[in-house]
Amino acid sequence: MFKKIALVAMMGALIGVSFGAATANAATARNGVCEDGEFCLYYNSDNAGSISDFNTSISDYGDEQPSCYEFKSGGNGQGLCVKNEAASVWNRTDNKVTVYFNSGYAGPSQTIAANTKTNLNSTLKNENASHKLNDGGGTTPPPGGTYAPPNTNPHPSAAARAPQATKRTQFVDDEIRRLTGEKDCWVGDYRSYEPSTSNHNTGNALDCTISNAIGTYPNAAQKEQGWKLANWLKKYADKLDVRYVIWQGKIWSVARSSEGWRNYTAGSGVTGGHYDHVHVSMQNPYGD
Question: Which of helix, strand or coil describes residue 178?
Answer without folding.
Answer: helix
